[in-house]
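Recap from last week: sequence in, structure out.
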Amino acid sequence: MTNGNKTPWWPYLLVAAGAAAGLGLIALGYAPPTAAMVMGITMLGGAGLRLVVPGRSTGALAIRSRKTDVLTLAVFGFLLVVGAIAFSIDFHAP
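Predicted structure tokens:
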């Protein structure tokens, strides 16, 4: 899928679909840590795509410089995954 400028949208849509899937899981009644894990893994995948796919092929996923985009997506993805794991641990078990 491209716009009039022949910019590919598939990397951006892949990350957006992962975020929508995570929100959809919450709407279906799954635990929020499960949804956060899905969204975090998707963001880490987006960071990987931004790192590996050539600049012109990343389309709307490329907003800033490659280094900034990868770092931003990786940090937020990592924090979502770590937060999901932390909320899944029962610290007050009897």
